[in-house]
Amino acid sequence: MQKLDWFDKFYVDKDIILSPNIPFALSRGAFDGFPTGSCVEAGLRKVAVLCTDELKLNNHFTDNEEIVIIPHDADRIVRMIEAFYKKPDKLRSIAKKGAAKMRKVYSYERQILPRIKLLESEKH
Questions:
Q1: CATH (one of 3.40.1080.10, 3.40.605.10, 1.10.10.10, 3.40.50.2000) for 4-123
Q2: Could you tell me if 45 and 99 are in contact, meaning their C-beta atoms sit under 8 angstroms apart?
Q3: Which of 35, 66, 89, 124 has the CB geometry, 3.0–4.6 Å to 61, for a possible disulfide?
Q4: Domain coordinates in residue numbering, the chain
Q5: How far is CA 72 from each of CA 78, 105, 123, rounded to the nearest angstrom?
Q6: 48 beta partners
Q7: Whole-angstrom Cα distance, residue 16 to residue 98?
Q8: What is this structure's pTM?
Q9: Which parts of the chain are beta strand (E)?
């Protein structure tokens, strides 16, 4: 378990977080969510998120603009990363737009406040 300020230092020199997760590999019904917590932490710090979405859970991020949905195929992933090596401005743009979207999607107003309101409504 790391403190939040550790992530600020860790991700400062990172361009990509690669998360080729597959569901149900560890046990039946087990999956890491979309995007994973580590992807969110990286994305909030303007690291481009390249991740799988085998369960089609993405309903917030625009592929190739705010996040990059990758296949679970090493050769194809390598080709995708090589393309970004040739177009670093595109990668930076995805990282920047992704960070903005992550801040919006995972904001207090969108995540915590609705839960508080739900709990408060159940008290009455």
A1: 3.40.50.2000
A2: yes
A3: 66
A4: 4-123
A5: 11, 25, 45
A6: 16
A7: 12
A8: 0.89
A9: 16-19, 48-51, 68-69
Cα–Cα distance between 72 and 57 in angstroms, integer? Answer: 15
pLDDT of the chain, 124 residues: tens digit per residue: 888 889 999 999 999 999 999 888 778 877 777 899 999 999 999 999 999 999 999 999 999 999 999 999 999 999 999 999 999 999 999 999 999 999 999 999 999 999 999 999 988 6
Contact 94, 69 (CB under 8 A): no
Are β-strands 16-19 and 68-69 bridged in parallel, bridged antiparallel, or unpaired? unpaired
Q: Which two tokens stand for residue 2?
A: 């790391």
Tally helices (H) and strands (E) across the chain. 5, 3
Triad 2, 23, 3: Cα angle to 5°: 5
